[in-house]
């Protein structure tokens, strides 16, 4: 996996599109707005805005948003413009909120970003930055599966038909030379589509033999006695692939670039702070998770999950393109036109101010 190949620049009818839109992670409420923000005395509003509405998932793969909110990085950069938040548990609801104007900027996985862009004929969103890489593993019952070849003939869970991890698993299965019907999940391996929240219970009950899932579900399975058989990062160049991006409404980007730049600056600052303060950052993320979901992660789940996530300002554009190719090859997506999905101008400006190099859009940047 994965030598990236150029995407055809024609947008076909997305017959299977609804199958790909759910993100590969899902914890937290549907959309919980948040108040009580502290704004520094003498601060000024950015672009004349009263607020900027930020969406994210209550999940460790959205660590930048969790920590940035908990530690006040976003509010600091936005000044007297209030940072408001909405927590989502699935990609489609966040894309819908972006399209309706309920949120302006969001942290989201690659599949819903691809679908949101393709369904709107490239008119609703732009990817403006990266956030996280990795954090996806194949965890199995060590009594039933002792090697990769033993996966054949077994029942393996993925979060949802056509989601990011489902596509990755189907691509891996094909690379082993095995056959699976993508729609039914039947074949040399049985693919069981199971919500991340119920997969650990299904594993414990023995109804699945393993799962290709994101964190913290992977670590929950390990806590139930599972064994990590494969880390998806090892299948990608430099062990990096996008799991979380930052998206923005095209209209909001056009009308309020200073506000967008402020959020990106806060994101870069947050990632820098997390790298410099890993233990404090982990605690802050878990505190925010508890606020968002009503329950903090136990140490035996949080610690390994946190270690497997690699924060990055780089959106890793080439890997998003490859993920779209894999969905096409699996028969779950008509070839989309992703030309223009990225606008990394403001991110490059923020990085340059910090003495960091610009990042690449893999030829998919807006003109």
Automatic annotation (TrEMBL):
Cited Gene3D superfamilies: Periplasmic binding protein-like II
Localization per record: Cell inner membrane; Periplasm
Cellular component annotations (GO), alphabetically ordered: periplasmic space; plasma membrane
Protein origin, superkingdom: Bacteria
Keyword Cell membrane in record: yes
Record has Lipid metabolism as a keyword: no
Keywords noted in UniProt: Cell inner membrane, Cell membrane, Membrane, Signal, Transport
Entry's Gene Ontology molecular function annotations: ATPase-coupled transmembrane transporter activity
Signal peptide: 1-23
Record family assignment: Belongs to the bacterial solute-binding protein SsuA/TauA family.
Record PANTHER family: ALIPHATIC SULFONATES-BINDING PROTEIN-RELATED, TAURINE-BINDING PERIPLASMIC PROTEIN
Name of the protein: Sulfate ABC transporter substrate-binding protein
């Amino acid at each position: 996996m994965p030598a990236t190949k150029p995407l055809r620049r024609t947008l076909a009818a997305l017959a299977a599109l609804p199958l790909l839109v759910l993100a590969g992670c899902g914890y937290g409420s549907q959309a919980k707005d948040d108040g009580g923000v502290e704004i520094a005395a003498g601060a000024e509003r950015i672009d004349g805005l009263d607020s900027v509405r930020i969406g994210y998932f209550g999940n460790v793969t959205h660590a930048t948003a969790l920590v940035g909110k908990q530690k006040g990085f976003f509010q600091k950069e936005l000044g007297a413009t209030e940072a408001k938040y909405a927590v989502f548990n699935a990609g489609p609801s966040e894309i819908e909120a972006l399209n309706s104007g309920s949120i302006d900027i969001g942290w989201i996985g690659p599949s819903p970003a691809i679908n949101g862009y393709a369904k709107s004929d490239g008119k609703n969103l732009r990817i403006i930055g990266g956030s996280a890489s990795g954090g996806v593993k194949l965890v199995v019952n060590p009594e039933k599966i002792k090697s990769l070849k033993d996966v054949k003939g077994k029942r393996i869970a993925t979060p949802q038909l056509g989601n990011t991890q489902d596509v990755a698993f189907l691509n891996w299965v094909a690379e082993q030379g095995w056959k699976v019907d993508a729609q039914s999940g039947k074949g040399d391996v049985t693919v069981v589509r199971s919500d991340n929240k119920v997969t650990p219970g299904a594993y414990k009950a023995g109804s699945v033999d393993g799962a290709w899932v994101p964190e913290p579900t992977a670590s929950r399975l390990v806590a139930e006695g599972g064994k990590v058989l494969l880390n998806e990062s090892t299948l990608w160049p430099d062990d990096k692939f996008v799991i979380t991006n930052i998206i923005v409404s095209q209209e909001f980007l056009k009308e309020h670039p200073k506000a967008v730049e402020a959020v990106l600056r806060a994101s870069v600052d947050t990632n820098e702070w997390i790298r410099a303060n890993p233990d404090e950052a982990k605690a802050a993320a878990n505190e925010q998770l508890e606020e968002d979901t009503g329950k903090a992660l136990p140490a035996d789940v949080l610690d390994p999950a946190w270690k497997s996530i690699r924060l990055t300002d780089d959106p890793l554009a080439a890997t998003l393109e490859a993920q779209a190719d894999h969905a096409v090859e699996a028969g779950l997506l008509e070839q989309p036109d992703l030309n223009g999905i990225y606008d990394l101008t403001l991110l490059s400006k923020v990085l340059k101010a910090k003495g960091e190099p610009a990042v690449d859009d893999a030829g998919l940047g807006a003109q």
